[in-house]
Amino acid sequence: MGIAKFSATVATVLVLLSSGISASGFENSGVGMKARGMGGAFRAIADDWTAAYYNPAGYAYILDNQLGSAWAFVHHRDEFVPNTRWGGTFDRGVFDGRTNYNNHEILTNPSAGILLRLPVAGETVFGLSAYQRFDRNITWKLYEPLRAYSDSANFPDDQFGMNLDVVSFQLTAAKEFAWGERSAALGIGLQLQRADLIYTNVFFRRNPITNSPDEPLYDVMQDYPWDVITQWSRSDGEGWGFGVNLGAMVQLSERTQAGVTFNLPFPITISGTSQSQFYMPDGATMVTNPPLPGIIPGTISHLFVSGAVVRPISDFEVGLDLPPSLGAGVSYQATDRLVLALDGEYTFWSRFDGLDFAFSNAVGLAGPADTVPLAREFFTADLSAPVDWDNSVKLMLGASYDFPEFLAPEVGLTLVGGLSWDQSPARNEWRLTPQLLDTGNKFGFSGGGIVHLDRWDLGLVTSYTRLQHQRAWDLDMDEAFTSFPGYYQPQTFETILSFNYRF
Questions:
Q1: First and final CA of the chain: distance in angstroms?
Q2: CA distances (Å), 179 to each of 125, 184, 250, 259, 380, in order?
Q3: DSSP for 25-43?
Q4: Helix (H) or strand (E) run with residue 183 in it
């Protein structure tokens, strides 16, 4: 088989089989062309500007200056079948038993970097880069209020959503230390991190007047939908933090290298503005012709059965505890053209226990919603979106094969492929939500090609990620959807385009 036919065949197989290099939790699946094509098995190679992400020590072994960028086009297409009919009795307005899909959109994830060899302390390599270390973007429409709520036609479509982007601006420095025919390198990346968060959710809150036997409608309001107030909330904010990315590489033999890394992001406090909409059950018959005395317009009892929509706006803060990670890898130059690599990563996801929103300075409340303590506390209460995650392991196996003179002496080709297994941090079926889906382990392949034109490297990588099907339960059945019961099947399609210029 000729070289051209062989390479075309391999590339086609890699594209058709490519599946899954997405990382656990909401960690980004990686940056760059070669590393992504090799399934992320890049810690012991790290021979382009993306070493800032995978192993900063790799900069020390790069002999030329580089300027590069990559664009990942990402499409999340997830399925969810809610199952919220607890006891087979109550219809909550959720699309039970129906296959739902997240809102369709194509997302872009850009990254870029530059590295320079400078005569500092002998010769030290410096670099500047920007990339997304953590990323989560998904929105669902899963709910329509029942007719018991008068303004249900205006209920928002962006109901269960999370748009989290954590961008790292990293200054990298690396230096090689040689002894005899062997050498090692150390690298450090100092990170300034910006986090942008848009979080939307629907909560089913128990009507506060059903908790007091002194309320005139206490007995009547024990049944759904009168006992439930639907709350839609949207929080939009940003925050800044710091982090450090440490790496080391060592030449074990003429053909073998090893690398270790430790990435430590510091907690980020995100602040901004939150708006909520509270949909009261419409008890018009009760209000205009009350079966019990005491339902008087302008009172708290009237407010919580009036069919009104209360729309407070508040400031908010939420802490984002990003997980550290520890990684190691080894690469082997099997032939002059073939490189094999194996990586492992351990991510401390137990550090992240969800999002706790603290609200303050609420405006937009009037009448008893503002003056009655019980009502004001209800409309300004802090909210929580907990998860129960454990630490996770990821294994990556990659290969690259070079064709130095693919079409002409100045045109080369590198084919890359990889396999990966990524353990889900979600060990508890009671703590899964539509915003933070990580329902099962990920398996798959990745593949692509890099064309070398003089000083230019142009790459294309494609991937498909499909998680294991998973069922979630609501443990306490408290109508607050601590988790969202149902059946999840997430999947992600990605195409990565990139370039690298060596000078």
A1: 36
A2: 19, 9, 11, 18, 64
A3: TTB----SSHHHHTTT--T
A4: strand 182-206
Q: Shortest CA distance to 22 belongs to which of 355, 462, 370? A: 462
Q: Cα dist. 148→156, 219, 280 in Å?
A: 17, 18, 8
Q: What is the pLDDT of residues 66-120, one digit of tens each?
A: 999 998 888 777 888 877 654 444 556 777 778 888 887 777 888 999 999 887 8
Residue type at position 426: A
Peptide bond into 145 cis (omega under 30): no
Residue of 379, 263, 258, 283 lying closest to 324 (CA atoms) = 263
User: How far is residue 131's CA from residue 127's CA, in Å, rounded to a whole number?
Assistant: 13
- Tokens found for residue 185: 């390198």
What is the C-alpha to C-alpha distance for residues 374 and 369, in angstroms, rounded to an integer? 8
pLDDT digits (tens, 9 = 90+) for 113-168: 999 988 787 789 999 999 998 988 888 888 877 766 666 667 888 888 999 999 99
Residues written for the chain: 503
**pLDDT-based confidence at residue 215 (cuts at 50, 70, 90):** low
Beta bridge partners of 466: 491
Q: What is d(CA 252, CA 353) in angstroms, rounded to the nearest whole number? A: 40
C-alpha to C-alpha distance for 344 and 391, rounded to whole angstroms: 13
CA 500 to chain centre: 27
* 190: three-class secondary structure by DSSP: strand
| Alpha helix (H) residue ranges in 129-265 | none
Of 206-220, 227-241, 390-404, 407-421, the poorest mean pLDDT is in 206-220
Q: Classify burial at 98, counting beta carbons within 10 Å of its beta carbon; exposed 0-12, middle 13-18, buried 19 or more.
A: exposed
Instruction: Tell me the domains of the chain and their CATH numbers.
Output: 3-502 (2.40.160.60)
Instruction: Give the whole-angstrom CA distance, residue 218 versus residue 220.
Output: 6
Beta bridge partners of 269: 319
Six-digit token string for 253: 């033999």
Cα gap 309→174, rounded to integer Å? 58
Report the relative pairing of strands 228-251 and 256-265 from DSSP bridges. antiparallel
Residue type, 325: S
- DSSP secondary structure, 121-157, as one string: SSSEEEEEEEEEEEEEEEEE--B---TTBTTGGG--S
Record the pTM. Answer: 0.84
| DSSP code of residue 53 | H
